[in-house]
Amino acid sequence: MTIDLLPALAGRDFLDIADVTAAELRGLLALAADIKAGHWRAGARAPLEGRHLALIFQKPSMRTRVSFEVAIGRLGGTPITLADVDIGLGRREKVSDVGQVLSRFTSGIVARLFSHADLLELARASQKPVINALTDRSHPCQVLADLLTLEERLGGLEGRRLAFVGDGNNVAISLIEAAALTGLALTVITPPRHYPPAEVTRQAHTVKVTSDLAALEGVDAVYTDVWTSMGQESEAEVRRLEFAEYQVNRDLMAQAPRAIFMHCLPAHRGEEVTAEVIDGPQSVVFDQAENRLYAQMALLASIFGEA
Ligand code: CP
Ligand code: NVA
User: Fold this and answer.
1) Residue 149 in contact with ligand 2 by CB distance below 6 A
2) Which CATH superfamily is domain 142-288 in?
3) Catalytic annotation, pick one of 247, 263, 292, 296
4) Which of 51, 63, 116, 139 is labelled catalytic?
5) Which CATH architecture fits 17-139+291-304?
6) Which residues have any ligand 1 atom within 6 Å of their CB?
7) Residue 2 burial (CB < 10 Å; 0-12/13-18/19+)?
8) For the chain (length 307 residues), average pLDDT per consecutive 10?
9) Can you give the pTM of this predicted structure?
10) Which listed ligand is nearest to 135 at the C-alpha?
């Protein structure tokens, strides 16, 4: 059985979840599920055959780097991974010059950058598609995998209740954009200083933001992320105090006894989540990690494959 690619995504950037329509997002998730189920049969020509993609990592990465390298390899392409020391983005060389040059050598760029503004500049300069592998603003590839995991575990997305407990930054923002497209009933629970930006939540009618942990009552899934993201290390002490009561532990999970537990990883046991919860029976964190591979294969095949 061969599977349908999504010709509508051909040649497009994927900088945020909001860059795709609701139908395109459904299509990507269906394709990812098909690939995971073993229905992937490369036709005469694998989607990335003969193509090279540049992977830029300005910050550390394990899951994103490995899952993209494996995904590109499985689709017949070749990844070229570049660390910040290789490029000196914005210091050794202007961001836009990097975009211009890499897009002349390769078929596309996957970039994990500190600044979302730099990602936008890179994408403007690149003549080939650019995929966001995490910035300070968003982490859309993570959330593609999370949506696949939620569908697998909860049987759908629309109306399912997800509570995100913790920092309202990159992962939360991509979840909000996903909720706006899928009808996922998302509540972001965080101290007021860490509320996600109002311009992100304004259009998302199935999203609520509160500092009140009582909003966890009876949800289908509880998601958390680190309290101190990469690049915020100088705030770690302050953040540990600010988020202390938002730790996902047994007492907190007792408010949602049937909920699955989600985390994008890496996790800090004893900070945002206890070992008992993340290593316990409700945890689906390794399914989320595994699903990065299938979600990104679907994304890459749709952007770079010839349907
Ligand atoms: N979840 C995630 O993006 O992990 P890495 O930082 O290891 O890539
Ligand atoms: N919010 C975290 C996500 C890591 C995958 C960070 O930006 O460090």
Assistant:
1) no
2) Aspartate/ornithine carbamoyltransferase (3.40.50.1370)
3) 292
4) 139
5) 3-Layer(aba) Sandwich (3.40)
6) 61-64, 134, 142, 264-266
7) exposed
8) 68 97 96 92 78 98 98 96 96 97 98 98 98 98 99 98 98 98 98 97 96 98 98 97 98 98 98 98 98 97 85
9) 0.97
10) 2
